[in-house]
């Protein structure tokens, strides 16, 4: 099938997305009611960047002395004397102890809620997060791409958590969920069916990553910031065959049109640069988002933590994992477009040694959670990174994003 250049530019703007990807509801609401509520769901909130960290090394030394609890916190029916309880009894318990779960999420970063019956259905899962006072928001990809919903219905508040068979051998690196200027404050990941092999949900404590990273590298990330390449347009090999007199004007026209189309689609500034693909050295246009902070102070607790998606976005680290799990399966145009990379905020490259250090520390802090049907991991999207292991079989996990929760101090 042949595509015109203009059509490719416009379709690529629609597919713009990094790698990786409702108001109050009663327990037995109908699908019609769910869709009606979803229409009123707000966008994901703007990211809380806070003030720039000026002395990261001193802050790192101080953070190492701070006491921390278990990560993630495990909570089971045995903890609440709810063994063999009905779903109604479980729901009442969550309502009565809502503050405990919210506080555990904020203070400890993540809570693994395991062994309950209530969350084995989408309706039960929604009633759970409503009971503990979580306020849903739209997927942060909402403005640039439509992430599938778990039940296939448009407007449903529970999204797919990368269950496609075509992505089963793709290890989803550790990341905080954000797109451009927007980041959910929290998330709840739920298992409706576990994969037969693998498919573990992964979490990592951003506070520990901040503490264990080489101090000089922490200082460099804090001072320079980071910048993501969030998309590659791989359709321009034909430019190399044009006469020299035409190549530069045509390339400039394409670059300008594509940049205009993409910036009209997203709510943050994107700059397009010509380059070569790390995969096959073909000519590409690389879309880079604005520079941003890679370490933050938590908006609720003030704790310093890593907030840098190098593990998922670095093309070199992805290629390294391909050697273990097999190459990515680019089965459609969007898959070819949605390739990412990372640089320092001044557009300089990360050295091999810097990438190795980041990969080492992040990998050492990954916790593998083999979720069972009805299990939920409630996490703070700022201090906790998440990912997904490769898998075989059929996997059905979902996720709901939250703009905040009852009693939040920094809305």
Explain how this protein is built.
With 411 residues, the protein is of the alpha+beta class. The chain is 32% helix and 21% strand. The protein is built from 13 helices and 19 strands. It has helices at residues 5-14, 31-39, 56-63, 87-96, 98-108, 122-131, 206-212, 215-224, 244-265, 310-313, 315-325, 333-337, 352-364; strands at residues 73-75, 110-113, 134-137, 159-160, 172-175, 186-193, 197-198, 201-205, 226-233, 271-276, 283-288, 295-297, 304-306, 341-344, 366-369, 376-380, 384-388, 391-392, 396-405. Strands 1, 2, 3, 4, 6, 16 and 19 form a 7-stranded mixed β-sheet that branches. It has a 4-stranded antiparallel β-sheet with strand order 5-17-8-15. Helix 4 (87-96) runs parallel beside helix 6. The chain is globular and about 75 Å long. Mean pLDDT is 86; it is low at 1-39 and 330-335.
* Beta-strand fraction estimate: 15-25%
Mean pLDDT: 86
Q: Which radius of gyration do the C-alpha atoms yield?
A: 22 Å
- Major sheet description: 7 strands, mixed
Number of E-type strands: 19
Specify the structural class. alpha+beta
Overall body shape: globular
Number of DSSP helices?
A: 13
Helix amount: 25-40%
Q: Which regions have little confidence, pLDDT < 50, spanning 5+ residues?
A: 1-39, 330-335
First-last Cα distance:
49 Å
What's the quick description here?
The chain is 32% helix and 21% strand. With 411 residues, it is of the alpha+beta class.
